[in-house]
Design goal:
The chain is an alpha+beta fold. The protein has 3 helices and 10 strands. It has a domain of 147 residues. Helices cover 16% and strands 34% of the residues. The N terminus is likely disordered.
Length: 243
């Protein structure tokens, strides 16, 4: 019986190792992701003056098309509120793929093409349906917003996680998992969905990827500061003849 249990444990270990190896191969295959998220306004938080609101982060996704004549059919942004690394697997060149389980999963923005069947058949205006970049919250021409029903989507939230999903007419889909840092910059990784809200992410996640961030607070002038003429600790003038 003991030998039988050891054999079963050994088999499970080999199966798990094989599964991790397969995950790593997939992760390394998508390492050159076809969409990347960028933020050119990461210094906005530092530039905000005392008492000024901190500008919301801005994300621009770069999109590539590997097939001639391919177009963007749909883009979706899903928000998550936490993350946990549940497995790591090392590959060649020091690259490490990670399986990350996210908490939440609320679609906050989605757009899709407004192309009709006639356009699909004729290929009319394909260049209008193959944008090279996509800025979060800005619906390009020839596309319509599906989520939310009306108005702009909510601003990107510092400390939250997002998955940008880019779907192309050819059936090619790419995913980018993003963490918004305290200064509004991003940590972005190529990703592939797994069971539930888990994704395989490549490669070499930052050590603090799953850790919460300290969001800068709006600072107001210190009313007790000696430089403040209305400071409460300044003594009122003594009336004439006062003791």
């Amino acid at each position: 019986m003991l030998m039988h249990n050891q054999l079963r444990a050994s088999t499970r270990g080999r199966l798990w190792a094989g599964a991790i190896a397969a995950i790593l191969m997939v992760a390394l295959a998508v390492a050159g992701c076809a969409s990347t998220a960028n933020n050119d306004d990461s210094d906005d938080a530092a530039d905000a003056g005392p008492g000024e609101p901190i500008p919301a982060p801005k994300a621009t996704v770069e999109i590539t098309y590997h097939k001639s004549g391919d177009t963007l059919s749909r883009a979706t942004v899903t928000k998550f509120f936490g993350a946990e690394i549940i497995a790591n697997a090392a590959g060649s060149g020091g690259r490490v793929a990670s399986v990350v389980r996210f908490d939440g999963g609320v679609p906050i923005w989605e757009i899709k093409t407004d192309r009709g069947i006639t356009d699909e058949i004729s290929g009319f205006g394909k260049s209008d349906y193959a944008p090279k970049t996509l800025e979060y919250g800005k619906t390009p021409s020839h596309y319509q917003q599906m989520i939310p029903d009306e108005g702009p989507p909510e601003p990107l939230d510092r400390g939250s996680f997002y998955v940008f999903t880019i779907e192309r007419a050819s059936g090619s889909i790419s995913y980018q998992a993003v963490k918004v840092l305290a200064d509004g910059s991003f940590e972005a990784y190529a990703a592939q969905p797994r069971a539930g809200s888990s994704y395989v992410m490549c490669c070499n996640l930052a050590a603090d990827f799953t850790e919460p961030v300290i969001v800068p607070e709006e600072v107001t002038p210190d009313e007790s500061s000696p430089d403040n003429p209305d400071s409460s600790d300044q003594s009122p003038d003594q009336p004439p003849g006062g003791n």
